[in-house]
Amino acid sequence: MLSEESLKKIEREIAKYPPDQKQSAVMAALIIAQDEKGWLATETLDSVAQLLGMAPVAVYEVATFYNMYNRAPTGRYKLTICTCLPCGLQGSLDAADHLKDRLGIGFNETTPDGRFTLKEGECMGACAMAPVVLVNNKRMCDAMSKERLDALIDELRESA
Amino acid sequence: MDRVSTKQQAAMPIEFKLNGNTVVGRPDETIIECARRHGVEIPHLCYTPGLRPDGNCRACMVEVKGERVLAPSCCRGPSEGMEVTSDSPRARASQKMVLELLLADMPAQAYRRDSELARWVEKLGVGAPRFAARAQPGADLSHPAIAVRLDACIQCTRCLRACREAQVNDVIGYAQRGEHSKIVFDFDDPMGASSCVACGECVQACPTGALMPAREWGLAAIDRTVDSVCPFCGVGCLLTYHVKGNRIAFVTGQDGPSNHGRLCVKGRYGFDYAHHPHRLTKPLIRKPGVAKDPERAVAPQDWDAVFMEASWDEALAVAARGLREIRERHGAGALAGFGSAKGSNEEAYLFQKLVRTGFGSNNVDHCTRLCHASSVAALLEGIGSGAVSNQVNDVANAELIFVIGANPTSNHPVAATWMKNAAQRGAKLIVADPRRTDLARHATHFLQFTPDTDVALLNAMIHTIVDEGLVNEAFVRDRTSGYEALKANAKAFAPEKMAPICGIPAQTIREVARLYATSKGSMIFWGMGISQHVHGTDNARCLIALALMTGQIGRPGTGLHPLRGQNNVQGASDSGLIPMVFPDYQRVDNPEANARFEKLWGVALDRKPGLTVVEIINAAYDRAIKGMYIMGENPAMSDPDVAHARAALARLDHLVVQDIFLTETAALADVVLPATAWPEKVGTVTNTDRMVQLGRKALEPPGEAREDLWIVNALARGLGLDWKYNHPRQVFDEMRRCMDSIAGITWERLERDASVTYPCPNEGDPGEPVVFREVFPTATGRAKFVPADLIPAAEHPDTEYPMVLITGRQLEHWHTGAITRRSGVLDAIEPEPTALVHPLDLAAAGARPGEVISVASRRGKISLYARADEGTPRGCVFVPFAYYEAAANLLTNPVLDPFGKIPEFKYCAVKLERGGPRPADPGYGKGSALAAIEG
Known about the structure:
heterodimer, A: 160 residues, alpha+beta, Arc Repressor Mutant, subunit A, Glutaredoxin, five-stranded mixed β-sheet, 12% strand, elongated, B: 935 residues, alpha/beta, seven-stranded mixed β-sheet, six-stranded mixed barrel, 31 helices, 30% helix
């Protein structure tokens, strides 16, 4: 079950749409649920479906379509690097390899200490600032040279 | 020139050019539909008639002159002067490319004989694909009815639309993205573990065989197809049997008026009981000296411990002699007959005629007594007709649908799809039931009222309508009588006073009442939750009053619809399988009716109404009834307090049972006559919508099993009646002579149309889907209000028995389980008896889901597996009554509604405990049917 606070937030999102179109709030509700739980378990999808009066399978379709929704638990820091063509041409593939080397994991893997998960992402709308890395869906880091990547990893390793 | 209205414009024909020819299209059709009408074939895969066009496959692209890009003809409507080509080089190249790309992904092995993709590939001459195949997913064979092989999936989403938009079961999804996109069940679960209800609509929709009947039946070379009617519920879906040899390979839905191609799990996969090895193939006679043991049924495989095989002549002679002797020695009143709502109209008619003319009394009844007798009593009293006023799919015209005491998603699944469709379109759906069932998810209002408080809830609605001035005064004045009494009675039922009794807030009651009264069209549907109470007739009276006082009857999208349970409970009742009436509800104590039938049948008839089901059983127990003839009924399972019923049957001097299996009732017989299953004979049945529909013969009966009509005839002759019916047609023609409602329906028309709605008094009449438009069929032409007061259930929970037992059915099992527990797929899905209990009540009893629990009442005790169900209200247990090894009717209370004589199956006091013996093996079911049938 979601916390009172999350439920309140979801109510707020639902209120933005006409009462018979509650399902319009599905993406926002999934974000709120994921922020609380860290990932979207089957029970979480079920409770979102119930809140919005949707068929559970319709919620599942949304949750699996967008790769910012986590369908499995992640490390404490999920690093998503864009590998779409404009980023790829500007060095994001090298940057991805550097991340893999530094963390010792591949895409969709989590470090043994549970601190990092590496994900391949899609266009984040910041092609001019490639390579782009997103931390936990919320913090966008741009122009990620190897030095800046190292600095990011060090910072996150040391954070409490 | 006159101006053209928008409505007129919307109906104007559209002239345009298709492949160079001028054609006329309609504004409500797409190019592909118009092309089909004009004999132009355009390739298509994701489009199929009956489902919303989706336009995702792009196989139907056409060129439109003057447009830059090609257009999908399944989504595009024609416009005036448009020039469309479907066979231009550009259009063809595009169509063929789509087919080639899809073909590249197809597995080498075909999963069906008539893949639509293969057909178009051949038609358009597409060669071997030039593209690499995708990585192929493995097969999912986890479901007993449906094989999933997504390697043949072209992602056209026809299955998804069938599941979510037609049947509204919401199981199939299209998940992931890009190259990972795939069809999923729930959260990508194996189909067998998903919430799939196995309606098979997706299988019927799949163009390539990615979804197919399990065990390769879809690949069978079909010898012939036979159009018929589904033998299960009252919805009366038309279907087609696909027969190979003397075996049904699979079933598809036909475009019938009540189902339009849709079926449910029973109709689509529950046909193979006809092939079960337990079928009776020879007449049986009880061995001399073997006593009848009401405590223990004969396991079907051990039949020879009790019975010996006999020839038909021998068995019929014994059967008839026993009945004759009782008649001669003890008089007509010592005999009784139970007909069946599972048989045809012709069988029902002949059966009651046999009892009335051969036995000489009106002691004939059938299971209508156990389902809608109280509804029929109230309807006959109030509006002069026991049948529905409007057909189920009239919900398309309704603004509000009120479903009370019914669980149509389980018991009338295809009818439920029309309600769900209506709800999706925006109709208000109000579901009132003590149990939260699947339909509640689609409801705008769900009223989970306290069991046994129907009258309180409904009278509070009536009160609100009076109180807030929502009564349709004109309708009440012109069409009804007795309103003042209703109004006076309603005074005492203010919602604020009833709320604590029924558990629904007064505000909600008022809101629902307002919505019902003021909508443009409100329809009421009800089921056994209304009828199976000691106050069942009162419950129905309240519903009738609601419709009458608001004038919500007599127009499309309004009316009263008691959802009939059995496939032919309407027809069997119409045909006179009722102790107080002749065919067409002509009362036996009405001298005019009596004279009419004495003239028609040429014998003197008893003018005293006969005994009803439970009364007959009680009389048998008291040895007042000494001989019975039971055709296709199983009172040893279906009657309340069934230990008493079994003892009563065992006390009979002579019991003749005609059935297809050695049922619990047949086990107590002196003579058992092997009859035919539904696909083995010809006959008509009448569904809940008053549609008389023709069932056709698809199979030869096994061994020496004979058609039921033949058996009734033979027995009649044994009783001295001079009967010479050779074909159901002759019986039907006789029925037309005494039943005005079907007088205009000819056998030839049934053979041509398969389905005709009555009333149809004159040949050629179209039939009336909506009745009571101008008058009610009462003496005065007016309907009558009958007020109802609060009557409590006969047995209330107390400290010793603190919980309430509600009995009923489940989706997969029919009535007493005799046929569905011998159907491979149905038995595999629900093999064991279960009790539905609220998780908190289960926890309070210290039991976990899946554990054995015991449920006991003052009359008996059963043990079965617990299933946690949040939809079951606290303090209640729901038990389906289809299981011999945990027969819910051992617990039920045999008290009767005083008017309908229906027992109170929906309410008695029980206690629940953890533990108990594991449910025993009755010799069938338990997941054994599939292996027994398919080896």
